[in-house]
Every structure is written in C-alpha cells, then in structure tokens.
UniProtKB/TrEMBL annotation:
GO biological process: thiamine biosynthetic process; thiamine diphosphate biosynthetic process
Gene Ontology CC: cytoplasm
Limits of the Thiamine phosphate synthase/TenI domain: 151-327
Cofactor or coenzyme needed: Mg(2+)
Domain named ThiD2: residues: 17-135
Positions bound to 4-amino-2-methyl-5-(diphosphooxymethyl)pyrimidine: 177-181, 209, 248, 277
Protein name: Thiamine-phosphate synthase
Family under the similarity heading: Belongs to the thiamine-phosphate synthase family.
Length: 347
C-alpha cells in the first residue's frame, strides 16, 4: 500500500529532477550568451552580467537536486527538433538561447515555489534581468551591424522586386530599407514579411520607411523617418530601445536636430537631384563634406548616387551611401552591389 508520505517523497524527487534539469539548461544558455559577449563583442560589462547570473543559478543548484538526476531514465534526452540542428547567424543563435534561458527560468520560478518559499520571487527577478540583458544585447548586435554597413539599399517598386532585393543581398548588402508609398496595407504587410525573412536569411538589417506599426508587426530591425514624420522620442517609446531609428536630413540644422533627438543614424542628402525626391533641391557635396567632419553617428549620403558619381561622394568624405535606382533598376544587382561595396571599402 502506497502511503501519502511515500507519494510526497516521490513528488519531491520529481520536483528535484525538474529543478536540476532547468538549472542546467539555464546555465548552459547563459554560458553561450556570455561567450559571445566576451569574445564576440569584447564587452566586459555584459560578460560580467552573464557571469553574475550564472553564479546566482549555481547557488540554487543544491546537492539534493543533483542527487535526483536520472539521465538514463529521462525520456526527454533523445528529443530534438530540426531547427536546433542549424542556426542562420549569430543573432538567431543568441535569440534561441535567450528563449531557452527564459523558458527554463519560468519553470524554475513555478516549481521553485514547491521547494523554497523564496525561490519563486528570486527567479521572477532573474527573468526580468534576462529580459533587460536581451534588450541590451540585441540592440548592441543591431548597432554593430549598422556600423559595419557601408551600402544601404532603399527599395522602389520594380518588376521582379523580390528577386532584385535577393540579388543585392547575395552581393553582400547588409542593410535594406523597404520604402513603399502607394500600395494598400495588406500588400505592404505581405511584402514586408517576405523582405524581413529574406534579410533574416542573409543576416542583413531590415528597416521600414515611416511605418512604425508595420515594423512592429513584422519584427523589423527599425524604422526610417522623414522630417515630417513622428518625433523620434515617440517612435522610440513604441519600438523600444533595441531597434534602430534613422532620420532623413538635408542640412546641418536638421542633422543636429536628429542627433539631439537620438537618431541611431541619419541620411545626408539629396546629394544629387533625384526623381524619388521630386521638387527637392540637391544638398550637394558640400553637405557631405560637413557631415564627414561633424556627424558623430553613422550617416549615409543619399540621392542620385550611382556608379558614375560614387567616387566623387567618397572623395568628399562619404564612407557610407544609400542608393535606390542604381540597384533596383540594375541589370545585374549582385555585381553592382559588389562594385559599390568594393569602392566604399577602398578607403
């Protein structure tokens, strides 16, 4: 006859096994994140934050829990999923391990209440600390990729739209802005989702022009705002701290305003007259020279830049350029992308 005491002991052993497995899982996930902070980002403070959390987990990992471990009898050790066998890039690797870590902490928070009255609240606090760490680290990743990007493609409607964008990504493009002024919201959303997936597949940043709502809906890396669009502070409140916000500028005053508002990057132009900005006078190379000496955030010269004039822009101090027609209407977008990038990394 099974007594209540015996049942209680069995339940206790199961709880110990659950806590043991999830403490292991959480510590493993944290270690993977910590290694990237340490070796990938060379950021001592982020690595230290991970290490502190790992040590806190270790303090809860008691001998009782370890003694309850039954690896051979655990039916979950052989379970896997195809998505666990591959990672598209470092961002997807980090996100997968943050998910793993957060799930483990949630389990520890709930089952921990059966083990120690303080364990639930301790792991709840730890979960919030991990959310903050994720926000900081994913924002860091985006800023790092932004800093590495020299070429910025802004889309325009063309035949074979997706094929053209993918051809540019194959050529090494790392930064794409989806700009669409005429389509209805359903078409806009569907196309944004496809572009987001393409950028994810190629490890590129995906920015949406104007539409904060669409950026949130598809999980874009950020938005680009014109001078007449919403204030950066409002966009930041909606998007959170980890996404990128760019601002178009046409003169030094607008540049200083965008920087003061907290823009992550700015557009500088139009350098040359362009049909995408009808009626807007060219800012010329003088503004490019000003930006090269005075802009503390990443900036992209934009407006009428193509293979025939890109070296004039580079000679004026433009280390990063944004293009529209030069790529969207190119016969061989991959080769044109490679040419632009080779010129931009020349100096």
């Amino acid at each position: 006859m099974v007594t209540a005491h015996h049942q209680g002991q069995e339940t206790q052993q199961v709880v110990y096994r659950i806590l043991d497995a999830n403490l292991d899982r959480a510590r493993e996930g944290l270690r993977i994140i910590e290694e990237w902070c340490r070796f990938g980002l060379n950021d001592a403070s982020l690595a230290e934050a991970c290490k502190h959390l790992r040590q806190e987990l270790g303090r809860w990992h008691t001998a009782q829990m370890r003694a309850a471990r039954d690896t051979l009898g655990d039916p979950g050790t052989g379970l896997t999923h195809p998505q666990e066998e591959q990672r598209a890039d470092i961002t997807s690797l980090l996100q997968a391990n943050f998910c793993r870590l957060q799930e483990a902490l949630r389990v520890l928070e709930e089952y921990g209440k059966l083990y120690n009255p303080n364990m639930g609240s301790a792991f709840k606090q730890m979960r919030y600390q991990v959310y903050t760490l994720e926000s900081t680290l994913m924002g860091y990743q985006r800023h790092q990729l932004l800093g590495q990007s020299r070429l910025y493609l802004v889309t325009s409607p063309v035949d074979h739209f997706l094929e053209t964008v993918e051809a540019a990504l194959k050529g090494g493009l790392m930064l794409l802005q989806f700009r669409e002024k005429t389509s209805d919201d359903l078409t806009h959303l569907e196309r944004a989702r496809k572009l987001q997936q393409l950028c994810h597949d190629y490890g590129a940043l995906f920015i949406i022009n104007d539409r904060v709502d669409l950026a949130l809906a598809v999980g874009a890396d950020g938005v680009h705002l014109g001078q007449q669009d919403m204030p950066i502070a409002v966009a930041r409140q909606l998007l959170g701290s980890q996404r990128l916000i760019g601002r178009s500028t046409t003169n030094p005053q607008e540049m200083q305003g965008a920087i003061a508002e907290g823009a992550d990057y700015i557009g500088v132009g139009p350098v040359y007259e362009t049909p995408t900005k009808v009626g807007k006078a060219a800012a010329g190379l003088e503004y490019v020279r000003y930006a090269s000496k005075n802009c503390p955030v990443p900036w992209f010269a934009i407006g009428g830049i193509d293979a025939s004039n890109i070296n004039d822009v580079i000679d004026a101090g433009g280390q990063r350029v944004a293009v529209v027609r030069a790529l969207m209407q190119a016969e061989q977008p991959t080769l044109v992308t490679q040419y632009f990038i080779s010129q931009l990394y020349r100096k």
